[in-house]
Amino acid sequence: FFLIPSYFSGAAGVLVGHPFDTVKVRLQVQNVDKPLYRGTFHCFQSIIRQESMLGLYKGIGSPMMGLAFINAIVFGVQGNAMRKLGRDTPLNQFLAGASAGAIQCVICCPMELAKTRMQLQGTGEKKSKRKLYKNSLDCLVRIYNKEGIRGINRGMVTTLMRETPGFGVYFLAYDVLTRSLGCEPEDPYMIPKLLFAGGMSGIASWLSTYPVDVIKSRLQADGVGGVNQYSGIMDCVRQSLKKEGWRVFSRGLTSTLLRAFPVNATTFATVTLFLIYMREGEECSIQDSEPQSVQLQPLQPQTQPTSL
């Protein structure tokens, strides 16, 4: 039952946030010797002018296909990990979130590879003269046929390095913020508080691992023109630092943070409200069937979802 709210909360987030993600990827991987974009706003303008509004939505098929499964895996694993760990402590919130982030990389890595390749296809062209990939699925099939399993998992190590601590921070920040703000079900301001906690958790998560994301994007984009520029993670780091300095690790950060707040605010608020609703329904049914034998506890805010 959890796939439905996961999909709709995630789909709304993707539709709002994908243009920002396209800008982020373009800024992260552009050639510093011949830059196409001067910054976030100029990148938005250029894509719309040269490729139309649809240019901002290149590669959207990939996250739309995988988001329901990713959300379900993340929130499901996190909830189960919290039950196994027992005590609801900040450390356990981090560990449960980190385990969820690591497991969903199996889907996340190939999905982001296809997304990145599609976002870079036909850069600066309203109608691509030569389309290498028809869509996200065709992209993965072609990469698999050419490079095998290793090809569609390009960037897996950097994805793990980003997602594992990133999701740990994500759930830790959300738990701390919801407790600090007092997100009780009877609070008339509960929804704005949940939105704020979710949005700020997303920002904290991205800030904690953003440099790794830059390297991941560069590795996944490498070879698009037929030439591989990097031999591995450390080679990518060395070349990037040598050419662009430490500022390279903040390329595209502005658009990422602009995207992070609304996307994560809607995702976390939707999931939390859905789980509170389900818990209330379960408690009511138990109370109706066994009024004498069951003593209900006051409903506490669901800060760690049991089943993203």
UniProtKB/TrEMBL annotation:
- Show the Pfam families listed in the entry: Mito_carr (PF00153)
Q: Give GO BP annotations, semicolon-separated.
A: mitochondrial L-ornithine transmembrane transport
Q: Where in the cell is it found?
A: Mitochondrion inner membrane
- Identify its membrane topology class: Multi-pass membrane protein
Chain spans, region Disordered: 288-308
Cellular component GO terms held in the UniProt record: mitochondrial inner membrane
Q: Where are the transmembrane segments?
A: none
Instruction: List GO molecular-function terms, semicolon-separated.
Output: high-affinity L-arginine transmembrane transporter activity
Q: Where are the Solcar repeats?
A: 4-84, 88-180, 192-277
Which UniProt keywords are given for this protein, alphabetically ordered? Answer: Amino-acid transport, Membrane, Mitochondrion, Mitochondrion inner membrane, Repeat, Transmembrane, Transmembrane helix, Transport
Catalyzed reactions: L-lysine(in) = L-lysine(out); N(omega)-methyl-L-arginine(in) + L-arginine(out) = N(omega)-methyl-L-arginine(out) + L-arginine(in); L-arginine(in) = L-arginine(out); L-ornithine(in) + L-arginine(out) = L-ornithine(out) + L-arginine(in)
Low complexity bias: where? 291-308
- Write down the superkingdom of origin: Eukaryota
List, alphabetically, the Gene3D superfamilies matched: Mitochondrial carrier domain
Of which family is this protein a member?
Answer: Belongs to the mitochondrial carrier (TC 2.A.29) family.
Q: Give the protein's recorded name.
A: Mitochondrial basic amino acids transporter
Give the originating organism.
Answer: Dicentrarchus labrax (European seabass)
Q: What is the lineage of its organism?
A: Eukaryota, Metazoa, Chordata, Craniata, Vertebrata
